[in-house]
Structure formats: structure tokens, C-alpha cells
Amino acid sequence: MATPRVFIIRHGETEWSLNGRHTGITELPLTSNGEKRIRATGQALVGDDRLIVPSQLTHIYVSPRKRAQETLELLNLGCRDGLPWKEQQLFEGQIIRTDAKVQIDDDIREWDYGDYEGLTSATIREQRSNNGEGPWDIWRDGCPGGESPGDVTKRLDRLIDDIRSRFHGRSTGNIEAESTPSDVLIVAHGHILRAFAMRWIKRELTEGVSLLLEAGGVGTLSYEHHNLDEPAILLGGAFMVDIGESAGRLK
Predict the structure, then answer these.
(1) I want to staple 38 with a disulfide (CB 3.0 to 4.6 A). Which of 2, 7, 12, 97 is the partner?
(2) Is 119's pLDDT higher than 80?
(3) What is the Cα–Cα distance from 216 to 20, expressed in whole angstroms?
(4) Closest of 236, 184, 223, 239 to residue 6, by C-alpha
(5) Which residues does 57 contact at the CB level (< 8 Å), separation at least 6?
(6) Strand order in the sheet with 6-10
């Protein structure tokens, strides 16, 4: 029995992510290098014998920000229903690899940085020092004029409940053995995905988040013992392999 997973992918590199500026509501395209790295990620990690198997995806959530949507496009998942922001959904020769629906969801938008939008952490620390304020920790303090940890927790918990109730089953607390696809993919942003991982395992953001997710990085969340009551962060996952096919090759 395969345990359902949630793959989280941070959007590719932008000019602001490259120089450490906090990017919430600002729309920025991926850099040329960011595009290349996302294409490479898709080639390396997406496929029938890879970590992310398109045919096993049941749903895809993506941030409203264009940099996240561009990242999803470059992964080349081959969505049968296309992408909500694209006028031409299918083109000649396109390979359909998944029936998963793509949903633009505001609950997975980046943290609203408010007054800190576009600033680096060094600039924020300098401003706070000049104003007689103490050291800044987004997980504890949130952002003035933006969101608090409580605000972010509320919307992420809503999203997690949606995933578990719609796609991972909740009737008995145990994941039922089903042959239908059950993996979920989320394409979003650095702070919000790290916060998502913490809330997935029921940890408070104010405890501090010692997790890293580079631009274009991929993470995996799942459950221990096939049990919805035991959400976990999957530190390492094996690629999918057809056992029968592999055995045949060894003969």
C-alpha cells in the first residue's frame, strides 16, 4: 500500500531571491538560470520512474504569483486539463501524463511581508536597530503591515484540512488502500512552504523553523505507518521502479 505524499516545490530563482530581498506580493519573473534549473528539476525528478510520478498525482495547488505558475509550467507535467492561466491548453504533440487538476489557491501565497516587502534581512535588522526595536524573527514577530504567524497558520491549516479531507481520506484516521492516485503537488514560495511543513507535522511556527528550501528546491511530506494521525516529513524518498520490469532486466 503506497502512502499518500505531498510534494512541495519552491519557485525558481528570481532577481530578488538571488539577492535576498523578501518577495511577497511583488510579481517577478524567473531569471534565465532559474528557468534552466527548474527544467533540470523536472527532467531529474518527474517521470514514471522518478520521485514525482505524474500519473500518481491527484491534485496540484499553485500560488497566485506568476513566478510559481511559471515554475509549474517548466516542470512539464503534461496536465490533461491544462493550466488555468493559459489560453491554449494543449498543443500538437504534447504528452498527457496526469489527470490531476490544477488549482490556484490564495492560501498558499507567500507570507505577506507588509512593510518589509523588497527588503533584505540585513536592511530589516538595521531599520529595527535604528528604531530601538529588538532582533527580528519572522516566525515569532511576523511582519508589520503584513501577516503574523497566527494569520499564516490559519490559512495553512485550512489548506492542510482540504488536502486530507478531499484527497487523503479522514473517515477512520487510517489511509485506505486504493489504486487511485493520491499524491498532491504544491508549487509556491520559500517562507510559506517551510511554514506549511511545520503545520503539516502540527508544530507551532513560533517554535522556530529550522528548515531550508532553496529556490527550485523540492521537499516531501507524508505519514508514518500509513496513518493520517501521524504526519511526517520524509527526509529521503526512493524513486519509483517497476519491480517486475527491474527483475527482468537482471536476468
Answers:
(1) 12
(2) yes
(3) 15
(4) 184
(5) 77, 98, 100, 181, 183, 184, 185
(6) 101-104, 57-62, 183-188, 6-10, 218-223, 231-233
Q: Which of 61-75, 92-106, 144-158, 166-180 has the lowest mean pLDDT?
A: 166-180
Specify burial of residue 234 (Cβ count, 10 A radius: 0-12, 13-18, 19+). Answer: middle
Using alpha carbons, select from 18, 20, 22, 17 the residue that is nearest to residue 117.
22
Mean pLDDT of the chain: 90
User: Looking at residue 94, what is its pLDDT?
Assistant: 75
> Is 11 one of the catalytic residues?
yes
Q: Which of 24, 96, 107, 111 is nearest to 55 (CA)?
A: 96
| Cβ atoms within 10 Å, residue 214 | 11
User: Which grid coordinates belong to 83?
Assistant: 493550466
Catalytic residue among 35, 73, 110, 147: 110
- Are the CB atoms for 201 and 207 separated by under 8 Å? no
CA end-to-end distance (rounded Å), the chain: 27
CB 218 within 8 A of CB 71: no
